[in-house]
Specification:
Blueprint lengths: L11 H8 L1 H52 L3 H4 L19 E7 L6 H9 L8 E7 L4 H15 L5 E5 L6 H10 L9 E4 L10 H11 L3 E10 L6 H25 L9 E4 H6 L10 H11 L3 E12 L5 H28 L5 H36 L7 H15 L10 H24 L16 H7 L13 H4 L2 H20 L5 H15 L11
Parallel strand pairs: 1-2, 1-4, 2-3, 5-7
Antiparallel strand pairs: 4-6, 5-6
């Protein structure tokens, strides 16, 4: 009996279909590519180019203004009334206004002593200072430790109060709001706020309070953050570069031109009357600090940023902690923009150009466009144009404009100029998380009000590094599987594929960037971003 082949059991029509399946897919692709895919992708390119130009002109404007500010603007103590407050022989310390210091905490085992100690060391008359530790900790051991630390300072004569709540309603905003309701706060004129890892210098209040005391239209004095662990690893150096631009340029320009900027949530002193007039703390977004600042500004209050008044703080040193922080910082502003844009438009107390600045520059370009253009253009649209011939991407949009933007962004941290190229690749990785968070905020999706407190390690890194038998960096007990991040690895695979395709068939040599960006996404996807120590 003749042997029966497998093909003889399959009808001829199906055999033809199987053989020609690849050809049919190719035919369908050719049919839809020219009339559908190419126009859509070209439209995406034009939209991305428009957003790039918006960001480019914003950065150039900020660069020009900051140069003018540094060269010609008067210093804050010359633009506003300022003189030191000192004791009077007749009235004693009554010349000093009563200041409340709030320190919100949540399970801050590693840093609670640092912030409490720094606050208790402020150079201000003891009878004119109230320190309020707002402890929302859920760990009973940590709560007991914090309470004992407060009692220790109270025994030394410091007016410090340990405050707890039954629930964490409203998170940080809820704690700050509850703290202002206490009867002993009624005599306080100003409130200084420090997160648990912030350590103000003793002269902080003596330098900041005179601006508020002598200028009744000023609501907020914001100090600059100084990072004690910037050299810990490559992750912290990248954060330093981003935040230094924010403080050196964005905050300085906002303060000098419109007396407005976003309150950074800590290292600032508020006039309590301004907080109350603006409606107090609200927990409708994860950026209660920015929410309060915008509402106070709409009521005519002015803000001052002091770049030379610096407060020590800590940067997240694990990629997980940094991702959660960036989700909150990206989702919150987008959600606040959605909630307040019409309120800003209808407001009659601020001038037109300030409205334009707040809506367009502060919110739309910096908080929305900046995140989306970085991810969509350089990680999605540009790689796709390699796979779809016929889509035109001008060299000025793909290379020249991003180069200028990057150079302008680097002015805040000249010591890290040699890390600039890797900073670009790292920011592209983070733009994926920021874009996702921004869309969640704009559309009020599921994680819109997610609040995860940023992990702080305090002196644990330094102590272990100084130990004779200890490693330079602490070992984090994460299983390898727990460190894997699927989204980063997926984007890495996509970029690697497009890079290979461009290497074999492309003409623009994008593959160099694509391979390097794929490597960076892979490092992040494997959880190794926070383990690389940079060259100094």
């Amino acid at each position: 009996m003749d042997q029966v082949s497998a093909n003889s059991l399959i009808p001829e029509s199906f055999q033809g279909t199987r053989v020609d399946l690849g050809g049919q897919i190719g035919l369908v692709w050719e049919m839809v590519r020219a009339p559908v895919i190419v126009p859509l992708l070209q439209l995406a390119v034009y939209i991305c180019l428009a957003m790039s130009l918006m960001l480019f002109f914003e950065r150039v404007y900020m660069g020009i203004v900051i140069v003018l500010v540094k060269l010609f603007w008067k210093k804050p103590d010359k633009r506003y009334n300022w003189e030191p407050i000192s004791e009077d022989l007749e009235i004693g310390t009554a010349a000093f206004p009563t200041v409340l210091v709030q320190i919100p905490m949540f399970n801050e085992r590693e840093v609670y002593k640092l912030s409490i100690g720094a606050a208790c060391g402020l150079s201000w008359p003891a009878d004119r200072l109230v320190i309020q530790v707002l402890d929302d900790s859920t760990d009973p051991v940590v709560k007991e430790m914090v309470e004992k630390e407060c009692q220790r300072w109270a025994s030394k004569g410091v007016n410090i109060v340990y405050q707890i709540r039954e629930t964490r309603g409203g998170y940080k905003a809820g704690a700050l709001k509850e703290g202002l309701k206490r009867s002993y706060v009624k005599h306080c004129e100003y409130v200084a706020i420090f997160d648990a890892d912030f350590q103000p210098e003793p002269d902080y209040l003596r330098r900041a309070i005179p601006f508020l005391a002598l200028n009744p239209d000023i609501a907020l004095v914001q100090a600059r953050w100084r990072f004690v662990n910037a050299d810990e690893c490559l992750l912290t150096r990248m954060q330093e570069m981003s935040l230094d631009y924010h403080f050196t340029v964005e905050q300085e320009v906002g303060s000098a031109t419109h007396a407005f900027f976003g309150f950074n949530g800590t290292a600032g002193v508020w006039r309590i009357a301004a907080i109350n007039e603006a409606g107090g703390w609200k927990d409708r977004t994860t950026v209660e600090d920015m929410d309060l600042a915008v509402r106070a500004s709409l009521r005519g209050w002015k803000f001052i940023y002091l770049g030379d008044l610096q407060v020590k703080s800590e940067l997240p040193s694990t990629f997980k902690a940094f991702r959660f922080q960036q989700h909150r910082w990206s989702c919150g502003p987008a959600n606040l923009f959605r909630k307040m844009v019409m309120e800003i438009v209808r407001n009659s107390k601020v001038r037109f150009w300030k409205k334009v600045y707040v809506i367009y520059s502060f919110f739309f370009v910096r908080k929305i466009i900046a995140h989306m253009i970085t991810f969509f253009f350089y990680c999605i649209v540009l790689p796709l144009t390699i796979l779809v011939p016929g889509v035109y991407v001008p060299i000025w949009g793909a290379v020249y404009i991003p180069s200028v933007i990057t150079i302008l962004n680097s002015v805040g941290t000249p010591r890290s100029i040699h890390l600039l190229f890797y900073w670009i690749l790292f920011e592209n990785v983070m733009s994926m998380h920021r874009t996702k968070a921004t869309l969640i905020g704009l559309f009020e999706a599921g994680r819109v009000n997610e609040w995860v407190v940023t992990e702080k390690l305090g002196d644990i890194m330094k102590n272990r590094a100084n130990a004779k038998a200890g490693p330079k960096r602490p070992r984090l007990n994460f299983k390898f599987a727990d460190r894997l991040l699927g989204q980063e690895l997926g984007v890495a695979a996509f970029l690697f594929f497009t890079g290979c395709y461009d290497f074999m068939y492309g003409k623009n040599n994008y593959f160099i960037y694509l391979f390097l960006q794929a490597v960076t996404f892979t490092i992040a996807g494997l959880g190794y971003i926070g383990t690389i120590v940079p060259a100094s």
